[in-house]
Amino acid sequence: MEIRVLKYFLTVAREESITKAAEVLHITQPTLSRQLSQLEKDTGVQLFKRGVRKITLTNEGFLLRRRAEEIIELVDKTSQELLEQDELVEGTITIGSGELGAMETVARLCGTFREKYPRVRFDIYTATADVVKERIERGATDIGLLLEPIDMEKFEFIRMPEKERWVVLMRADDKLAGCDGITAKQLEKLPLIIPRRLSVQGELANWFGRKFNNLEIAYTCNLTTNIALVVQEGYGYAVVIEGSLPFWDKSKVVAKPLSPALSATTVLAWKRNQPSSHVIKKFIEHSQCLLGIGEAYKLSI
Which fold would CATH assign to domain 3-74? Predict the structure, then answer.
């Protein structure tokens, strides 16, 4: 299975037309049709449903599309890293992160690094810790800002100095909005929204104690920005990390800390024993220097 043919396949899947895809790829339609037929022959499955006006993917085609996108992403990244092996500090660093308060420090790390090396570009990928961790493991992301708890056996990391605070997100006109802190008892009979990650649910279960099994879990979520709209409409109370607070409209939704307080830590992590490009090594050194000495993490731009 050639990379070139996978790119052809992805273009056809995107355009839903062999004619349009051939125009985008600057090849003839018969050539593209032969390549796709050979791909189906090589894989032994039907990848397309050919209709009158457009073609769509079969279930097998959707699977190949997902894998092909991962393969192309990894190939492009590897090619880029090979070109960046000289001593000139330039290239792209991919950083994965959830909606976390510690991202402010990471932003300052990136900013001060670009002051020294202006030819560096950062690609920021937002997802949960589990997704970011998986992307680091397969080489699609260089460095991740991960919310603990998470298995760090395969990673080198720097523990971030900030604590991520757990809060309850609610409508600004809610009766609990005037409270300084929200207790487990106050949440016991309310429709709750909690994170999807099982390890994080375990942390909340410890905080709630025996009340956890009696909670009304109305929603689960991976990131909190969109779920704030559910809260805004009055359909639930979100127990979330405060990191995405800057994105919320405080005239419509407010965040109140859990009482007793509950916090979590984050780590800046990269894969252990993984060959890295020169620019990534320099960024790790930069981060270790600024985060590892006393109050040096309090960066200023």
Answer: Arc Repressor Mutant, subunit A (1.10.10)
